[in-house]
């Protein structure tokens, strides 16, 4: 599934653990509920960037498009949930996003660059997780997730290209820093299943 996106695969530090894939398939309802939350949060992140950085023309354009797409995906997840009589409800967020964001530098433009690099990791990991789940999911969900791969990969590319554009220098050190943080977050066990959680913690 990911052979069409070699740059995305190379960007990520590791594959999703098999134990996480098994956990996801055992929690299909929770997967969809949390996926809906992820799409809503992704749209919110894009909008927040638009409000914060009003002088960045390319960012405004790409984040506007991204926000619209994420909200469409949110609506599509809700439709699948409705077809399956699954109620949309509040969930506590996983430690993944907060685990990445705690390392954001506080001065500009470093703050913007780190935020964009994190956005690239979130989108790339989402794409990878959808891809590994597709062969194992019911047809309706698998078809939907397959339709998301192209846009998630493009979102990854948009975030990374914006980080490169606005840094004015190499971002390789920060990319590698967050790569190791992401590896740790993906491989460390979690108690609660989420789209971006690690594998299940042993009882």
UniProtKB/TrEMBL annotation:
SUPFAM superfamilies: Ferritin-like. This is tRNA-(Ms[2]io[6]A)-hydroxylase. InterPro entries: Ferritin-like, Ferritin-like_SF, tRNA-Hydrxlase_MiaE. CDD domains: MiaE (cd07910). Gene3D superfamilies: 1.20.1260.10. It comes from Marinomonas ostreistagni. The lineage of its organism: Bacteria, Pseudomonadati, Pseudomonadota, Gammaproteobacteria, Oceanospirillales.
């Amino acid at each position: 599934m990911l052979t069409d996106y070699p740059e995305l695969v190379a960007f990520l530090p590791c594959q999703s653990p098999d134990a996480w894939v098994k956990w996801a398939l055992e929690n299909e309802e929770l997967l969809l509920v949390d996926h809906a939350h992820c799409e809503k949060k992704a749209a919110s992140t894009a909008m927040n960037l638009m409000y914060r950085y009003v002088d960045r023309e390319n960012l405004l354009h790409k984040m506007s498009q991204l926000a619209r797409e994420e909200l469409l995906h949110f609506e599509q997840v809700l439709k699948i949930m409705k077809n399956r009589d699954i109620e949309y409800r509040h969930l506590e967020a996983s430690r993944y996003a907060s685990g990445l964001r705690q390392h954001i530098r506080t001065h500009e433009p470093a703050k913007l660059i780190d935020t964009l690099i994190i956005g690239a990791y979130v989108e790339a990991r989402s794409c990878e997780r959808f891809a590994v789940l597709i062969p194992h999911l019911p047809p309706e969900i698998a078809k939907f997730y397959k339709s998301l791969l192209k846009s998630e990969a493009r979102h990854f590319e948009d975030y990374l290209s914006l980080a490169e554009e606005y840094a004015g220098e190499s971002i390789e050190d920060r990319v590698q820093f967050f790569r190791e943080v992401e590896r740790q977050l993906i491989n460390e066990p979690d108690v609660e299943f989420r789209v971006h959680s690690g594998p299940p913690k042993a009882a």
